């Protein structure tokens, strides 16, 4: 019996392993997350990521050699942005898998009723209808820097870890719809649990900001900063 031919040549998996090795460092992933928000200089990226400029520069050069980031010169500054390939979906896939793992671990500790409550949520279509009637308040529970880079129209930003202390900021008499990055993001789940514990009506958006944006729906962003 003849051995079956391989689905992919050996060098295919070698190339995949090279990409995985390039991404396999916490500092590089942190740098990529900040670059995904907006184009930034190495000095900005070093400060945001909590590493030295020299260290950030070394990691960025490795990402650049792999085509994961690219650069352009703006006067004396070199600005980094994501590469031309599908880098954003790759980052989303990594975030989604991590969030899925966390969600799976947490679900083991929940009874069936709590589990249903977590998994059920409002769809984008339902949310659009409720937004027209102005019967809901959108609660973005992502960190402030992510909210500032883009959010659902009219959303209020209260990061999940601060919600307990800032419940009074929520408008009275409105149903809350909380959202974060995507369907497996546990931040919105934490927010719903907090709101329910205080007797507040709330549901989570089954999708998240990334899915909303990918659907081509309206996104609010801060005005562009003017360079002095």
Helix content: 40-55%
Structural class: alpha/beta
- The run of helices and strands is HHEHHEEHHHEHEEHEH
What's the gyration radius in Å?
21 Å
How many strand elements?
Answer: 7
Pfam families: HTH_20, Rhodanese
Organism: Pseudomonas brenneri
Protein name: Metalloregulator ArsR/SmtB family transcription factor
Domain Rhodanese: 132-221
Walkthrough of the structure:
This protein has helices at residues 10-23, 26-37, 42-49, 53-65, 87-107, 112-119, 124-133, 144-148, 186-197, 209-214; strands at residues 40-41, 69-74, 77-82, 136-140, 156-157, 175-179, 202-204. With 228 residues, it is α/β, with parallel strands linked by helices. It has two domains: 10-82, Winged helix-like DNA-binding domain superfamily/Winged helix DNA-binding domain (Arc Repressor Mutant, subunit A), CATH 1.10.10; 110-214, Oxidized Rhodanese, domain 1 (3-Layer(aba) Sandwich), CATH 3.40.250.10. Helix 2 (26-37) packs across helix 3 and helix 3 crosses helix 4 (53-65). The longest helix is centred in the middle third of the chain and has 21 residues, at 87-107. Residues 8-102 form the HTH arsR-type domain. Keywords: DNA-binding, Transcription, Transcription regulation.
Keywords:
228 residues, alpha/beta, Arc Repressor Mutant, subunit A, Oxidized Rhodanese, domain 1, four-stranded parallel β-sheet, three-stranded antiparallel β-sheet, 10 helices, 48% helix, disordered C terminus, Metal_resp_trans_reg, HTH_ArsR_DNA-bd_dom, transcription, transcription regulation
């Amino acid at each position: 019996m003849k051995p079956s031919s391989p689905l992919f040549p050996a060098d295919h998996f070698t190339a995949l392993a090279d990409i995985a090795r390039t991404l396999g460092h916490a500092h590089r992933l942190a740098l990529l997350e900040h670059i995904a928000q907006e184009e930034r200089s190495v000095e900005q990226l070093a400060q945001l990521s909590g590493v030295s400029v020299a260290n950030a520069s070394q990691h960025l050069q490795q990402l650049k050699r792999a085509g994961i980031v690219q650069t352009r010169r703006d006067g004396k500054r070199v600005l980094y942005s994501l590469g031309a390939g599908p880098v954003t979906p790759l980052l989303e896939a990594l975030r989604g898998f991590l969030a899925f793992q966390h969600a799976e671990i947490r679900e083991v500790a929940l009874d069936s009723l709590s589990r249903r409550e977590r998994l059920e949520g409002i769809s984008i279509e339902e949310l659009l209808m409720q937004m027209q009637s102005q019967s809901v308040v959108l609660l973005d529970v992502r960190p402030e820097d992510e909210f500032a880079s883009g959010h659902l129209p009219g959303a209020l930003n209260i990061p999940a870890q601060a919600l307990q202390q800032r419940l009074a900021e929520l408008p009275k008499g409105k149903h809350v719809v909380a959202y974060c990055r995507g369907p497996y993001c546990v931040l919105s789940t934490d927010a719903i649990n907090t709101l329910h514990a205080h007797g507040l009506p709330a549901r989570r958006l089954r999708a998240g900001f990334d899915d909303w944006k990918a659907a081509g729906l309206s996104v609010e962003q801060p005005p562009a900063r003017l360079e002095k």
